[in-house]
Specification:
single chain, mainly beta, Immunoglobulin-like, 3 domains, twelve-stranded parallel beta sheet, ten-stranded antiparallel beta sheet, 40 strands, globular
Length: 485
């Protein structure tokens, strides 16, 4: 990592006018107050104001925006979110009018925005650019980073987020925005070029790239194309380890761990990765013994066979591994079902499953879940494929099993941030969450998070259970369904 470009020089936010409650004016430098003889009687009060935002640095064009040299400019159609407190003491978002050609000056570095606030009160104000990165409560939609397409144009239009804060004041009904506010970028951008261990350039063959800092996971899904591959991400400190798994169009898998490097918000950082091929494409149709998938492995095909004892082969995922399912089918729609005292997939610790194509997983014997992660660990599901996960009788589709089976009684945390996911619980079990329990002997599940970046999540419970969360006579942690708005 040799070259760092600071792609957002701090942006000065200058107020050029204040407008009174219930009034607007073509003169952006004027201030008006309601006439005494015509007081405003409506319960809804609005403030319409115009202000100028600026990005530092030079620019050659007025077109959108983040160039390969890190130049950031405004473009026609851009909008900015203004986050403020209303009279109900709630933080809310207002979105500025879309920029027109005449609003953009200074070679694209300055823009005049107009925004209307409803029932505001004096206090802190946040500016978030672009507006699409702000939720309705004014927080930043970090989940938008989970699934990306690796292109600079998409990143520039959707994920190039900057934020500034200040204090709005009010005097005798006239509101004034703060001046001198600075917009600072919230994310870093990494520009990846990838070689294999022989030094051969393979960026153009990569169709999937997943990276994790241990807390946040980012997945790029794309058609094979020339690089580099661009990824927007939250800052990384030097004590974090970044784990990379790349999938090529040839079905080859590559991995790399990198530590000791800090990546700051606002950096545009070229990264050259030399990745080792982890050459295990595991064809389930040929298995005759248990298998533990390692980091970078891919599972494909339909599990058909049993081991020498007549039971099905057990499919596990190693602790800390990222594994891809690509057209995999495990014990799904079998008649009779394959036999085994285990889940369809058993995670042995923290695990990330990348869903590609259409995949099917079902628990084996009665009471076992489709996919199980142990208590104290976290399963992250990402990708752009479709997953059908089903519990066998009293097991959850994704989560824990029946409470009298100690091996799968208690499961860990579940994070779903990509793909189209269908979870179906058995009798008394959640579609995603805990399996069926009994009085004084519940099954349990940790926290469940459904991020806004998913395409779709549908969960079908068994009798007495929640679709997502608690099985009958069982418990679960906090269930969070993030909203991008």
């Amino acid at each position: 990592m040799k070259r760092i470009i600071r792609y957002l020089n701090m942006a000065a936010l200058a107020l050029v006018s204040v407008i009174a409650i219930g009034c607007s004016s073509d003169d952006e430098n004027s201030t008006q107050t309601p006439p005494a003889e015509a007081p405003q009687t409506e319960t809804t009060k609005t403030v319409t104001l115009t202000t100028t935002l600026s990005f530092g640095g030079a620019s050659e064009t007025k077109t959108r925006a983040l160039t390969t040299d890190g130049v950031k400019t405004f473009a026609v159609g851009d909008q900015v979110a203004v986050v403020y407190t209303n009279t109900s003491d709630k933080r809310v978002k207002a979105v500025s009018n879309a920029l027109a050609e005449g609003d953009i000056t200074g070679e694209g570095k300055n823009a005049k925005i107009t925004v209307t606030l409803t029932n505001p009160v004096a206090g802190s104000v946040d500016y978030i650019y672009p507006a699409a990165m702000a939720k309705n409560d004014g927080s930043i939609n970090y989940s938008a980073l989970c699934m990306q397409d690796g292109t600079l144009s998409s990143l520039a239009s959707n994920l190039d987020c900057a934020k500034g804060s200040g204090t709005m004041t009010s005097s005798e009904g006239t509101f004034t925005l703060p001046t001198g506010v600075t917009l600072a970028n919230q994310f870093a951008i990494c520009e990846f070029a990838i070689k294999n261990s022989s030094g051969t350039e393979i960026t153009g063959s990569i169709t999937g790239l997943t990276l994790s800092d241990g807390t946040n996971t980012y997945t790029v899904s794309r058609a094979a194309a020339d690089g580099p591959i661009y990824v927007a991400m939250r800052p990384v400190t030097s004590d974090m380890t970044l784990s990379f798994v790349a999938n090529a169009a040839t079905s080859s898998c590559y991995y790399k761990n990198v530590s000791g490097n800090a990546i700051a918000a606002g950096d545009m950082l070229p990264v050259k990765l030399t990745m080792t091929q982890q050459g295990n494409v595991i064809n389930l149709s040929t298995l005759t013994a248990d298998v533990e998938a390692k980091n970078g492995d891919m599972l494909t095909g339909k599990l058909l066979h049993t081991d020498e004892h007549g039971r099905s082969c057990k499919i596990s995922i190693a602790d800390g591994a990222t594994v891809t399912l690509n057209g995999a089918s495990i014990n799904y729609d079998e008649s009779p079902a394959l036999s085994g005292d285990f889940a369809g997939i058993t995670c042995l610790g923290n695990a990330t499953i990348i869903v590609s194509g259409t995949d099917y997983v079902k628990g084996f014997n009665s009471g076992y879940p489709g996919i199980f992660v142990p208590s104290g660990s976290t399963l992250t599901i990402t990708g752009d494929g479709t997953l059908f996960a089903e519990g066998h009788e009293n097991g959850a589709g994704i989560g824990s099993g029946r409470s009298d089976i100690d091996a799968v009684k208690d499961c860990g945390n579940i994070v779903i941030q990509g793909g189209t996911i269908f979870g179906t619980g058995g009798i008394g079990a959640a579609g995603i969450g805990s399996g069926a329990g009994a009085d004084k002997n519940p099954s349990s599940c940790g926290n469940i998070t459904i991020k806004s970046s998913v395409t779709q999540v549908d969960a079908t419970p068994g009798s007495g259970a929640d679709p997502i969360g608690r099985g009958d006579h069982s418990t679960s942690g906090t269930v969070t369904r993030e909203d991008s708005h």
